[in-house]
Design brief:
about 140 residues; mainly alpha; 5 helices; elongated
Length: about 140
């Protein structure tokens, strides 16, 4: 009987672990990824403006962010979550990707003032993402 109880407990645990997340939980996870990339781009830009990292660091960071944010945008566009929750996040994601591209271009041009403007956009986006998360229930 003890082995049966143990097997049942293990099977139940495995079943619970395999359950998929709700669309709302999934979209919140995507928003966290966007928040992380936004913070990473901001940090890279701030460090380059302060002459603490080479341009290549910012460029490779911005390129990785562009690729990953593109994937996130595609995933969120497929989400069955209600449009009033999904659409604002898609816009924030697109804006973050655009700011990352702008940062990369400013760094390539050696334009610290332009990079500072993009960092400012990223700061604003971080605040908007936090507001969106509060509205989404996180």
């Amino acid at each position: 009987m003890r082995n049966y109880t143990l097997a049942l407990a293990l099977a139940t645990s495995a079943l619970l672990a395999c359950q998929s997340k709700s669309p709302e939980e999934e979209i919140l996870q995507h928003s966290q990824t966007v928040s992380s990339w936004t913070a990473t781009l901001r940090f890279a830009g701030e460090q380059w403006i302060a002459n603490r990292v080479p341009a290549s660091f910012v460029q490779s960071t911005a390129e990785a962010a562009r690729e990953e944010l593109g994937k996130e945008i595609q995933e969120v566009s497929k989400s069955p979550v209600r449009p009033e929750l999904r659409s604002p996040l898609q816009k924030l994601m697109t804006d973050a990707r655009s700011a990352g591209n702008g940062l990369r271009k400013a760094v390539e041009a050696g334009d610290r003032a332009g990079a500072a403007r993009e960092v400012g956009r990223l700061v604003a986006l971080q605040g908007q993402l936090a507001t969106w998360k509060r509205g989404a229930g996180q």
